[in-house]
Amino acid sequence: MTTTLPAAVDAAESAPRTDADLRPDASRAGDAADAFTPKRRRVPALFGGELNARDLVLIGVFAAAAKLSAIVIALAGGGLNPLALILKNTVVATLLVVLLVKVAKPGTIMIYTAVTVMVGSLLSGSAMMLAPGAVIGAFFGEMFWRRPWLAVGVSELIAKFVALAVGWVFLRESPQLMKVVVPVVLLGATGTLFGLWLARSTVKELRHAGFLKRFA
Predict the structure, then answer these.
(1) Cβ contacts of residue 64 below 8 Å, gap of 6+?
(2) Is the pLDDT score of 92 beyond 50?
(3) CA 60 to CA 116: how far, in whole Å?
(4) Interatomic CA distance for residues 34 and 59, integer angstroms
(5) Mean pLDDT of 10-36
(6) How does residue 27 score in pLDDT terms, banded at 50, 70 and 90?
(7) Hey, what's the torsion of the CAs at 113, 63, 195, 84, to 10 degrees?
(8) Core-most of 8, 11, 77, 201, by most CB within 10 Å?
(9) pLDDT in tens, 154-199
(10) What is the pTM of this model?
């Protein structure tokens, strides 16, 4: 006994429908594409996973400004000028505090340090010796990213003393050279502390100017 065509159509219409049948074809095609699309891994916050394009642009601008200021001050100071060393670290610390107040997100110090290390390595091969200390300092500074002054102080001071330890490893057989390196590092640390003090008034003025949020 064969089933007539009208009876088959009525049976198909009366059959229960699933959610997949009720969705449009485009939605089903999207589900099929998602099944073969690899899942994107989320970047950790330490390496800038929570930063957007605007934040990255600000970090790049501040890193370039800090590096350019350091170069100009070093050229104007002429060699190992104590005032130039203090002023250079003062400007860098102040700019970094302003950046952390402006971009109050984890990963800011790490990305900033990565940019400055890469630029410094391209400009001077000796900057590679400072890279380990800068990265270690940035790692510890990220632990205090909610407190910009403390984060910058920890990051910069640890970076300088790690650089001093690296210098001792390479120059331990030449103690006379270490007598030159130690005052340079101490002058840099003094400039950093002065920059942290100067950053308070700088941040205050920038808040009045509207560049920084009042509650930042």
Answers:
(1) 115, 119
(2) yes
(3) 9
(4) 34
(5) 49
(6) very low
(7) 100
(8) 77
(9) 999 999 889 888 878 877 777 777 788 888 888 989 999 999 999 9
(10) 0.74
Asked whether 67 and 119 are in contact (CB, 8 A), the reply is yes
DSSP 112-127: HHHHHHHHHHHH-GGG
What tokens does 28 get?
């089903």
Nearest by Cα to 164 from 210, 133, 208, 202: 133
Averaged pLDDT, 78-97: 88
* Domain chopping of the chain, boundaries: 45-209
No. of H helices and E strands in the chain?
9, 0
**What is the rounded end-to-end Cα distance, in angstroms, of the chain?**
82
CA distances from 164 to 23, 86, 145, 194 (A): 66, 17, 25, 20
d(CA 48, CA 101): 16
Q: Which residues contact 146 (CB under 8 A, 6 or more apart)?
A: 104
Per-residue H/E/C for 44-104? CHHHCCCCCHHHHHHHHHHHHHHHHHHHHHHHHHCCCCHHHHHHHHHHHHHHHHHHHHHCC
